[in-house]
Write a structure and sequence with these properties.
This protein has one domain: TIM Barrel, CATH 3.20.20. By secondary structure, the chain is α/β, with parallel strands linked by helices. 45% of the residues lie in helices and 17% in strands. Strand 6 (87-93), helix 5 and strand 7 (120-125) form a beta-alpha-beta unit.
């Protein structure tokens, strides 16, 4: 999955400044799903093949806001049903404020989406001072599972054994987040390979892909790693 939902947070930064261009590269590389906002989807819908899944971002944080780090509810299950997407995604950043409201929102959204048959992906991230701590990642992921999410997206803790325990304690498929872009593709490919070895269901790499020197080739290599599991 290629997250392309960074616009509200980062603005039209390099890599997602031209939505159709990056979508064309991701699709050509074999991406099986795109994570987008409603407006981004409108901009690219006609060039997305039917076999590529669309996950709709329904919570947002706005980089220009005085509360830029706080995720807020933005859209509903009805929005997702109207746009005929394959799933929806919500983020909860623990420790940033607003997480109690976001947990209530996620619970309601899961209930509403069940009525439409729409799966819910919960991006569950621990506080910034424990962002890559295995126990904290496991706790965040478990909260998403306990709330009823169909898929959890979270950080990779940095070692195979630690992440294997996270996967075992969550019991729903886990995708790993990518984080900032890297100077070369080797680290991105290694993280993906390690996470898949540990039991991750797949990867959700945004900046690592669309700010790479050759996004299409990188997507193709990542897909090969995921399919080898």
């Amino acid at each position: 999955m290629i997250p392309l939902d960074h616009g509200p947070w980062l603005g039209p930064v390099s890599g997602i400044d031209c939505p159709r261009d990056i979508v064309a590269k991701a699709v050509a590389g074999g991406a099986n799903a795109l994570l987008v906002t409603p407006g981004f989807l409108r901009a690219v819908a006609e060039i997305v093949p039917p076999e590529v899944g669309i996950i709709l971002r329904v919570s947002l944080s706005a980089g220009l806001s005085a509360e830029a780090l706080q995720e807020v509810p933005a859209f509903t299950a009805t929005t997702a049903a109207r746009l005929d997407v394959d799933a929806v995604a919500v983020s909860i950043f623990f420790g940033r404020g607003g997480e109690v409201e976001m947990m209530r929102y996620l619970g309601r959204l899961i209930e509403e989406c069940a009525g439409f048959g729409i799966p819910v992906l919960a991006e569950m991230l621990p506080p910034s001072d424990k962002f890559f701590d295995a126990d904290s990642i496991a706790h965040a992921a478990r909260i998403g599972m306990e709330l009823g999410a169909d898929i959890v997206k979270t950080n990779y803790c940095g070692d195979v054994a630690g992440f294997r325990r996270i996967v075992a304690s969550t019991s729903v498929p886990i995708l790993i987040a990518g984080g900032p872009s890297q100077d070369n593709d080797r680290s991105t490919l290694q993280v993906a390979a390690d996470a898949i070895q540990a039991g991750a269901a797949g990867v959700a790499f945004g900046r690592r892909v669309w700010q790479a020197s050759d996004p299409e080739t990188l997507v193709r290599k990542l897909k090969a790693i995921v399919l080898e599991k």
